[in-house]
Amino acid sequence: MDQLMVDITGIPRVKTGDIAVLIGKSGNESISVGDIAEKAGTITNEILSRMGTRLERIIT
To answer: What pLDDT, in 10s, does the model give residues 6-26?
Structure first.
C-alpha cells in the first residue's frame, strides 16, 4: 500500500494542497534520512528500503 499519515497538530496555516517535504530542504529547514532514522530508532537503510518504488522522487 502507498499510504502515509502525518500528524500536523500544532502546525499553523497548513491547508489541503500544501507541499510536504519528508526528506530534504524547504527554505532554511532540512531533514535527512539520518534524522528520521535516529528519531525512529533504526538505520537509514531501513527507512529508504521501506519507501515504495511508486513514491515520486524529486531530486534538485
So the answer is: 888 999 999 888 988 889 999
pTM: 0.69
**What domain range includes position 51?**
1-60
- Per residue in 34-58, pLDDT (tens digit) is 999 999 999 999 998 888 788 877 7
Backbone angles phi, psi at 56, to 5 degrees: -70, 130
DSSP state of 14: -
Domain count along the chain: 1
Distances in whole angstroms, Cα of residue 32 to Cα of each of 16, 23, 37, 39, 52: 24, 5, 9, 11, 18
